[in-house]
Inverse folding.
């Protein structure tokens, strides 16, 4: 019912920058939290950054001061500005959205989670 479209991944040299974007579309009552996770080869998926509907942010220690998450609540989009990229930032980045479903006549709303399909970020010289 809710789909995510991610963009902005690619190849960048160490010290460079990339900006990831994620757009949510479909049927829902409201979007609560939006965030980015990443998974490098041979590792578990980890939280990179998350932002609430009210604009409260949380970052992984490894990206604090380098990455900035932002959202346009009206447009249902979230972005991740990544600066001073390091080789260890190389991973598949996944958009994650927590939302409240639309209510039906006989169906109450409930909390749900949707994941993007992932976009590859490669930091290499």
């Amino acid at each position: 019912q809710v789909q995510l479209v991610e963009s902005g991944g690619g190849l960048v040299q160490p010290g460079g920058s990339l900006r990831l974007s994620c757009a949510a579309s479909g049927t829902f009552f409201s979007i609560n939290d939006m965030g980015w996770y990443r998974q490098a080869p041979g590792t578990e998926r980890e939280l990179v950054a998350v932002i609430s509907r009210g604009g409260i942010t949380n970052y992984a220690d490894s990206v604090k001061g380098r990455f900035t998450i932002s959202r346009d609540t009206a447009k249902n989009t979230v972005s991740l500005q990544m600066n001073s990229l390091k080789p260890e930032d190389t991973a598949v980045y996944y958009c994650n959205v927590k939302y409240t479903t639309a209510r039906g006549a006989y169906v109450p709303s409930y909390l749900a989670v949707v994941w993007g399909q992932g976009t590859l970020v490669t930091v290499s010289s």
In short: The CA atoms of residues 96 and 115 lie 5 Å apart.
